[in-house]
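User: Predict the full complex structure for these chains.
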Amino acid sequence: MEERLKELRQVMKKKVFNQLEFTDQLKNSIHTEIRKQVESDEYVYLSVLQLLVQEKTGVVLITYLRSRGIKRFEDNEGLLYSLLHRLEVNGLLVSKWEENEAKLYSLTDKGQKILRKAEKKYAVKQSYLKEILEV
Amino acid sequence: MDEITFDQISTASSEEIINEAMKEYGKEILQLVYSYVKNRAAAEDLTQEIFIKCYKSLHTYKQKSTFRTWLWRIAINHSKDYLKSWHYKNIVLAIEEPFLHEDSNIALEKSIIQKDEDEELAAVVMKLPVIYREVIYLYYFQELSIREIAATLMKNESTIKTRLKRAKELLKESLEG
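Assistant: Here is the predicted structure of the two-chain assembly.
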């Protein structure tokens, strides 16, 4: 048995995986899906930064994000708090505890600066997309 | 400097990581998934979903295991979830069953006319129940060590050894019995 199994690698390549290729088509299709995700991620980050120009609690922030059509945090508040945490660690946000025990988040100066740059970048991209679509 | 920070969180680098991962591991993930689901179209769909899932959970990768092991775990769990899904149990199996019978008839005829030993070995491995098939696959095809298999499947090494032993007994029975 052991002897035959030693040949399993060659055997499976020949008999099982012979029709199986990780094609460029599959690669491109994964790439396209991830691109969509990246673009929507960028929109989410930008929105979070824009909305936190004025300080807000996480709960309030989710309501505002919903009104912008961002629903990914609806049943997953943890996802939002881990994002807020990452932004805070990177120095874009500060948080402070309110008297009623909710945490308030707002942009730091660094956050403001990055927001302005990101808005410019995003605007360029949007107008570029618009051009393509209108032709 | 500010820009780098924004780019880091804006996931541009994650996208590059996934592109590299596809180049490096795309084929072996596709084969791994196929060894579970035994269907080319399903394996391709699941592989796509696995890389997207990997992209989405990249920030949870803690470097406690190698990136490859981490990716494999995602792939294996995703494949097993698919095998447990309503869609698979109620639709795919119902459609595929006639083919399975057909296959075994063909296999039977072949074995009478001319016994292709390689084909037979591949067929019996692919017919093993999942818990035995995966250890055989990881050990003999991917050539992982017992320890690596245990880490990938998140089981004890002794469990892996027992399954491997049982798997070989099962193979022996089907090939020689």
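Chain B has nine helices and no strands.
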